[in-house]
Fold these 3 entries.
Entry 1:
Amino acid sequence: MTVRQTKLIGLLGDMSWEASVLYYRLINQVAHRRMGGHHNARSQMFRPDFDELNALAAQGDWTGVAAVVSDAAATLEKAGAEFALLTAVTPHTVADQLAGAIGMPMLHIADPTGEAILAKGLARVGSWASSPSACRHGSASR
């Protein structure tokens, strides 16, 4: 029997545990559907304390947000993650700083989202985020 070794996904968990559960379930459902059998996504999740990130973002302390998110991603990388998947808008607000702080590739949500928007020919879209993150996000430029 040949076992397909997939990359280890480092999930920088959503800021609420409720949303993290949904992402985790969906990722594993897709992996199971694609690979069959009893397969699941090889993944690990790290969730910073949302209250801390929310307070930093509300104060406009994006350097602090970047430090917390970078530490979380570094923890995943040290544990063997081969790429980072950010599952919330707040970490994306500091994605450029994060990309420079870690050695593994990172999937930015704006890239596949933008591809889907262009493929569908949509001229106007909306997104959902906390006020501080929405004001700073800047995904439209990607």
Entry 2:
Amino acid sequence: ATLLRTLLELTARSVLLAYRRFVGDVDRVLLAGGGARNRVLVGLLAQHLPVAVLENPKVREPLAFALLGYLHRIGEVNVLGRATGGRDLRAGQVVEPYKNSP
């Protein structure tokens, strides 16, 4: 039990440090997947971050792509090069197949 608690603490602190280093202040952190079902981990994260658990994990991918598309549309960079090891910042490309259709 002590080893598991230590690993949970390490995981929570790693997430917190990553947010501080790469993201900064946030209004809310959405959790999904196995970690979101771990009440102890969610509690540890909630001590330092505004955590909300996604009840339906199927919304993760659509939410991520909606956010990336929105950031691209408003001209914001949607890639953290320093988090991925990339050097240049690119917003990617949005394909709008019906935009120029008859």
Entry 3:
Amino acid sequence: MEAYYIGIDMEGAACVVGTPGEGLSYGSANAAFAAREVLQEANAAARALFDCGAQRVILWDNHGGGVNFDYHQVDPRCEIALGSFHTRFPGIDESFAGILFIGYHASASTKDAALSHTYSSKTYQYYRINGRDVGEMEIDAAFAGRYGVPVLFASSDEAGAAQARASFAGIETVAVKKSFGWNAAISLHPETAQKRIYEGVKRAWEKRAALKPFAFAAPMDVAIRFQRIDAANAAKLYDRERKPFAFEDPYTRRGLLDDVTQLFD
């Protein structure tokens, strides 16, 4: 049975720029639209997979607390992962042929990328693994890569799409907007974005056999820089020997890990 897993964030969807000073907070004007739009983008991706012969597709609602959508609007052929998991791509295993990123955003240190951050713009300045700034795409891809599952496709703004191509050789991407800072972009019309995602996923499916799983070289040298000193002090981060991450400076914790899953232990 050919199965695929679609991770759905919200900041990288068409016509989504959030609110200055707040990002894409619950209850903000752009958040309700973002939830509707990115779900239709995910449905377009799922439809492309089913049209190519997929027999199982899981949509994972992974923005914030993981309860963002009107689930009646999900393509009824899909399964839905939702809620507050303590891992990434929950339930993934070797039976999946690939993962896809819909509505993902660029990493925290990216310039001119709408709503760029890594997990929380209020908490983290950056995640750095093996000397390279990384975002949610790389970390999520490494989770899937543990099971031999590659990344097939990513949709985002131009900066996020470029990040995906730099990290995952051969990946198909669709840029739904060009960002001009954290809260500004020129976007495709939502219907155009959905059509391009559908077409992009079909292209990705055609070359799926050539794609390789993503992995960080081990041991992983992980440095996490926080926005606030008190957050750095409170963070429960443990290295591969189950010792607390060291302090590089008052804002930055650093340690060695054997496996990406240890980030969320």
